[in-house]
Amino acid sequence: MTVEKNIVTDTISELFATQEEGPKYRALAVALRGGVRSGKLAAGTRLPPVRELGWRLGMTPGTVARAYTILTDEGTLVAEVGRGTFVQGQAPSPPLIEGFRRLETLDTAPLVSLFTARIPDLGQVALIQDCFAAIMADPGKALLDYPSARAFAPARQAVVDWMAGVPLGPVQHEDVVLSHGAQSGISLVMQAVLRGRRPVVLVEQLSYPGFRRAAELMRAEIVPVPMDEQGIVPRALEDLARKHEAQLLCTSPELHNPTSLVTPPARRREIAEVARSCDFHILEDDSTFLGEGRSETYRALLPDRGWFVSSISKTLTPALRVGFAIAPQARRGDLRRVAEYGFFGLARPLADLIEEMLRRPETRAIVRAVRQRNSDYVRATVNALGGHDLHWHEEAPFVWLRLPAGWRAAAFCLAAEAQGVQVRAAEEFALRDSFAPHAVRIGMNAQVPLPAFEDALGRLRRLLDDPPEQILV
What we know:
single chain, 473 residues, Aspartate Aminotransferase, domain 1, 3 domains, seven-stranded mixed sheet, 16 helices
C-alpha cells in the first residue's frame, strides 16, 4: 500500500511539474484532470492526503484542498468521509463547472488571454529600432565603462521632463533612479526604506501582487488595510499602522489595481496625515494609469516620506523592462545607493535608448495612440458587460467585474477558460488568508483584433447571463 501511494504521489508530482505558471491550486487541478483523462490516474485511485501532497509539491494543505474541491464539484473526484479522495473515473468532457451543470467547450474558438493588458504596435517597434540605430551611430557613447550617476544624468533628466505633467512636487534628476521596470523600482524603494528583522508593510485589502512579492523578499510582514469605495479607510489605516508599527504603505491611488477605483484628493490628504502622525512612508505605484491628468501624488503631499514608481510598460513597451523610482529629495541618496550596490545601474545602451525615446516628439504621439486604442477596448467591454456589476475607467488597462449570484471566482475562471477566454480571479490580489470577493479582473488585450476581443467578451457575457442553477450558500 505504501509503495502504491508513493507511485500515485510521484505521478501527480510529474503531472504538476509540466504545468505553466499561475495559481498553484489551478495548476494542480489542471494536472490532476489531465492525469485522469490520460489514464495515468485510473478510476478508483486514492489520492494522497492534502498535507502529504502539499508537502511534496511545496504548497499549503489549503491549496491542495482547493484543487480537490474544484475537481470534486465537477465530478472528476469523489470524497468519502473517513476514507479519503478518489478518482471517480474519466473526467467529464466537457467538464462540470462547480458541480452545477455542463458547459459546452467552444472547440473551434481560439484561446484569448485577458489575463493581463497587452498593447498593440502603433509605431513603437519602428521607434525603438530607430532609436537604437541613432545611439549606436554616436561615437561619443561609452560602451566600455561601468554605469555612473554622472553618465546617466541626461537620461534621468529626460524622465523628469517626461513626467512634467505629474504633480510630484519639486523634483530634480538626482531624485530619479532608473530601474528594470516598476517591479524593480518597488523593490528598490523597499530596500531604501525598510529596517529591522521583521518590518511591516501595509497594502490595500486587494492589491497588486508585486507589492507582496517584493515585501516577502525583504522578509517583511504584510498587513492588509480595509478599503471602501474611495480606497483605503483612514481610520483603519491608523489603527493598523500603530498596532504593527508599520514602516511603509504601498498603494495605487490614481488607478487601483485591480478594482480601477480612484482615491479622491480629500481622501489622499487624510491618508497623508495618517502617515505623518504614525511615522510611515508611502510608496505610490502609478504604472497602470494611462491618462494624463492626475491628482496630487503622495510625493507632493509628503515631501519627506512620499515615493513614486512608474514605467513605460503600459504606454510604450514592457519588453525593455524600464521603469523609474523617484525618491523624496532628502532620501535620494539612499535610493541611489541601493541601486548602485545592487546592480550598478541599467546597461548604458538601455539608458541612452530611454533618453533618446523620451525626448522624441513622436513618442508622445504614439502614447496618445495607445491610450486611444485602449479606450476603444474599454468601451467595447462596457458595451458587452455593462449590464453586470462592472467597474471601469477609460484610462485603465483592465476592468473589474463582480460576479452575479451563483458564480464563484475560481469556477467562473475555469468556465471561461473552457470557453476559450482567460481572466484573473480576485483571489490572486488578496493575501492568502484574506477575504476575496467573487470577482474577476479582465485585461484589455489590444494585441487581439477588436472583433475577436468582442467575441471573447460575448462568451463571458453568456456565462454571466446564465449562472449555475444551483447556488451554494
